[in-house]
Amino acid sequence: MDVLTDNFSLYGKGFLGTVELTVYASLLALALGFVMASFRVAPVSSLRAIGTVWVAVLRNTPLTLLFFAVLLGLPRFGLVLPFQLFAVLALGCYTSAFICEALRSGINTVPTGQGEAARSLGMSFSQTLSNVVLPQAFRSVIPPVGSTLIALAKNSAIAGAFSVTELLGTYKTLNELGYSIIWSFVWIAVGYLIITLAISALFNLMEKRWGVAR
Amino acid sequence: MAVDPLIELRDVNKYFGKLHVLQDINLTVGRGEVVVVIGPSGSGKSTLCRTINRLETIESGHIFIDGEPLPEEGKGLAQLRAEVGMVFQSFNLFAHKTVLANVSLAQLKVRGRKKDQADRRSRELLERVGLAEQADKFPAQLSGGQQQRVAIARALAMDPKALLFDEPTSALDPEMINEVLEVMRQLAREGMTMVVVTHEMGFARSAANRVVFMADGRIVEDRTPEDFFTAPESDRAKDFLSKILKH
């Protein structure tokens, strides 16, 4: 117990760091995932190709490798940003590939006939997507998107290895101060639980509110 | 016979892979004409119907709507589709929207009407197909016949020049077929240009100006219903009619 009360501000900072990483990377992942999913179902073949390559590259690259590539690679091209921003970029882009595929599976649950009906009424591709397909796809992708964001929250721990302030990284300091490693980790785990349970609570709520009525 | 052609297909060919589903199709539909397309399944009649608003692309040939060639993609195509309504076998109502919103959506997005204006028009049309009371329900709460009538109202809401019907009654229970056909008969009487792919021979006899009989991707006969049903010329049509009219 001491380990928490004595180092509350250290834990607090780490916790906030993880929350920030999670929130910013989630927003980036959702936005990019949305764009890429639209690309993957677009009638223009070059857009489809971009979407496919995006997913293939990011989904099949180990996240740690992606961190290395972003944190060590981008500065070589003269792009120097705060490490936290690099971490958000890496996490966000990586997760966007999974969000994209979740959204696409949702899009595939909407009967193609409804898309045809919308087009036959003179609606453009983007109108069909935003008024007919996505609102219905959205309902069925709430659970998988929730899982993906929970995974993102936990993946943010990798950022700690690249000297970004986040929850898991606090163990190093605590360890040096001589606290019991077990209790340090227990409280770290509790911190992650708070974040992941908050995400699942949010998505449960959304599912109740907007989920597919069966 | 068509004096004022609204829909024209010239030498249209289409393949699904190796399958030659539409072979040198020539068809003209005049303004105000009701053309019923019949034929055995796999004869290409649904595909023919879907090429007219380019839900299916064609490999060669030309399609003209109201004298204009059918645009390939983009805005022009969308505009043209707004002028040619389509009713599908499986209704294809937007499941997440109420009946009223289904009929209003494209009026708002494509025609740029104001919401109250669009809703007023939608209620008028729902009244016309006998579904004014169902306006606030969702499609899943309606019977098949009711859903199809909503789909017809939705197509009419764009004030189209022509309507395409792709087997509109094939997914319906027998007792619901008539309510849909009645709406279609009324449209025909009011002078709507219609291309109807159907198996309803009664409708073909009573409402059509012309019957087009298709087999194996070709138009085999194109005649008045009277002539076609009493004296079919081709063996293919005789064979088809003998199979369906026996019972």
Automatic annotation (TrEMBL), chain A:
InterPro entries recorded: AA_ABC_transptr_permease_3TM, ArtM/GltK/GlnP/TcyL/YhdX-like, MetI-like, MetI-like_sf
Phosphoprotein listed as a keyword: no
Entries under SUPFAM superfamilies matching the protein: MetI-like (SSF161098)
Pfam family, one: BPD_transp_1
Domain ABC transmembrane type-1: 15-203
Membrane association type: Multi-pass membrane protein
CDD domains, A to Z: TM_PBP2 (cd06261)
Membrane spanning residue stretches: 21-41, 53-72, 79-99, 181-205
Gene3D superfamilies referenced in this protein's UniProt entry, alphabetically: MetI-like
Keywords: Amino-acid transport, Cell membrane, Membrane, Transmembrane, Transmembrane helix, Transport
Entry keyword annotation includes Electron transport: no
Chief localisation class: membrane
PANTHER family according to UniProt: AMINO-ACID ABC TRANSPORTER PERMEASE PROTEIN YHDX-RELATED (PTHR30614:SF37), MEMBRANE COMPONENT OF AMINO ACID ABC TRANSPORTER (PTHR30614)
Designated name of the protein: Amino acid ABC transporter permease
Organism listed in the record: Streptomyces salyersiae
